[in-house]
Specification:
The protein has 7 helices and no strands. By secondary structure, the protein is mainly α. The chain has one domain.
């Protein structure tokens, strides 16, 4: 059993360090996809920006307001679509900017702002990679070791629970039972035979 645990925890330690070393690569590929989405939204928005440049002094908000002021439902709905693209571009720019920082801040940002659809599509085409910068190496060692420690503590907790189960009832209840039996025998009338 000890040999099995030793083998498992060494494999887990090495595997966790390698898995943690791939997280920065995943973030880089996620950021790349995010940049691709931003580029696509900006391309889709470009014709409307040109119209705003020609007719509204370059202010796309004025173009959107012009669409909203129209009584033509189709023209009004087009304003809603342009506004949605402008909002998407602003959100994507903020996300790209937030991910152009160190690893700790990237993890913090993704912890609360992860786009699950984008993460899923990134994972579907994810190619593991390793970066050998000091920041990434320290991250991999710390996260890998923390994962390993959770495993070791869990293993010892399960072993302790199993050991408790094998011991049977604890000594305290046994002592209580024996003292209860002795008081019962003291207070009980003597058993008579043959009368």
């Amino acid at each position: 059993m000890f040999l099995l645990r030793g083998l498992l925890d060494r494999l887990l330690l090495v595997g966790a360090i390698f898995a943690a070393a791939c997280i920065p690569s995943f973030i880089a590929q996620y950021r790349q996809r995010l940049g691709g989405r931003l580029d696509q939204v900006l391309r889709d928005l470009a014709p409307f920006q040109e119209i705003a440049n020609r007719n509204h002094g370059g202010d796309i908000r004025k173009l959107i307001a012009h669409h909203f002021a129209s009584t033509d439902k189709t023209f009004h709905d087009e304003g809603v679509a342009i506004q949605a693209m402008v909002d998407a571009a602003a959100n994507l720019k903020a996300s790209v900017l937030a991910l152009n920082t160190d690893l700790a801040h990237q993890l913090g940002y993704l912890g609360s702002n992860l786009d699950w659809d984008l993460a899923r599509s990134t994972w579907d085409t994810f190619v593991p990679g390793f970066s050998f910068t000091p920041e990434y190496a320290i991250f991999a060692i710390v996260v890998g070791t923390a994962t390993w420690l959770v495993f070791v503590l869990g293993w010892w907790a399960v072993a302790w629970i199993i050991a408790l189960g094998r011991r049977g009832p604890s000594r305290a209840p046994k002592a209580a039972r024996s003292s209860a039996g002795s008081t019962r025998s003291q207070g009980a009338p003597p058993h008579r035979t043959g009368t």
